[in-house]
């Protein structure tokens, strides 16, 4: 087994406006991209559990041409709210790095 961080070329999170966060998981080759999708390691349900969200709030898309998986979720608070600890959303991808991808 490997982690998503070991298999992906890039894992990042960022703002998608003041109300959404978006996550990009990009792969360097088609075989690895297909392996991760087929493993079921990164689905709406798994992402929701990892980030403690209702599955209905998780939007997940496969972009085959880019060998990428894109996920968008509501921000826990509006960007730059006094309770916002990550105004740019750039630190939210960390839990994905250690996500185990079964063989």
TrEMBL record:
It comes from the Bacteria. It holds the Pfam family DUF4387. Residues 4-99 form the DUF4387 domain. This is Acyl-CoA synthetase.
